[in-house]
């Protein structure tokens, strides 16, 4: 169903009022919902929107179809629907239309008045109406809060608890990370782990590749910059023993195992890692080396190559000098000429 068709359904039901909102003493908020088909089997794309009275939010993700009790997404044609999504923080009373498995309508969120006090008793304070809606959407249950609280994490507050639920930091995930040998207690680290894909399997993979580190920040940096177990194994097979910082620097500057192999073809086998990183920083490439070889410089030392790039000794500069009869200059002489401004 096209987005315009969904928007039309929203307009159709815009005047429909839900009687349940008026029959409760709980705090309520209203807005629109839409349902679309999902590419993931057994799920639908469910969105909630509220832009009224100065309140603005739009949440959408894939939800299990089983959460929508009583809805038949396979039924053809148009059908009027009513359904409730219940959470510890409150419930969403919804009504509207489905047509060929997609639809739209209005919702009222009815907050559970006891939820903020129960959460406060667990140490999670500052739950205003906006946070309570978010905690209902993401199903931050009292059970989940109690289990996370029992993990004795530093910096854990209401916002972090919501972030845990959003990013999938479960009690099981925390236990698995700790059992992998990382002594992590900062709540921020677990959120970063999930955002960047630091899993127990990734940690095990890095260690099985021969790098035994226990710094959580290093694993996060590995994932951000693309340090993989395969990269470590390839470098070890080539005779290198890089530490975590050198691996990160290599990835930042693009000194990949594939690039190192290209240098090897040009005769630069097992160059020191610091020099490889300097090659990438200053632009010493296999192509640059090939050009120098064609000009008669068979195998400059790595430090000479770096100096040539730093001071602008380019193939064009060398060709210009040779065209004027200066054909037997050494690399050091070429660098000296550039340093002294002789073109």
Describe this protein's structure.
It is a single chain. The chain is α+β, with helices and mostly antiparallel strands. The protein folds into three domains: 3-111, no CATH class; 115-196, no CATH class; 280-339. 47% of the residues lie in helices and 16% in strands. The protein is built from 18 helices and six strands. It has helices at residues 3-13, 19-22, 115-121, 129-137, 142-149, 158-167, 171-179, 187-196, 200-208, 216-225, 229-237, 244-253, 257-265, 273-282, 286-294, 302-311, 315-323, 331-339; strands at 28-37, 43-50, 57-64, 78-87, 90-99, 102-111. It has a six-stranded antiparallel sheet. α8 (187-196) packs parallel to α10. The model is unreliable at 1-25 (pLDDT under 50).
Task: Kindly list the characteristics that best describe this protein.
6-stranded antiparallel beta sheet; alpha+beta; 47% helix; 343 residues; disordered N terminus
Query: Measured on Cα atoms, how large is the radius of gyration?
Result: 31 Å
Q: Strand sequence of the main sheet, in spatial order?
A: 3-2-1-6-5-4
Count of discrete domains:
3
- Helix count, per DSSP? 18
Helix percentage = 40-55%
Provide the residue-averaged pLDDT: 89
Sequence of secondary-structure elements: HHEEEEEEHHHHHHHHHHHHHHHH
- The shape is elongated
- Structural class by helix and strand composition: alpha+beta
- Report the uncertain regions: 1-25
Task: Describe the sheet with the most strands.
Answer: 6 strands, antiparallel
Percent strand = 15-25%
Oligomer: single chain
Question: Number of DSSP strands?
Answer: 6
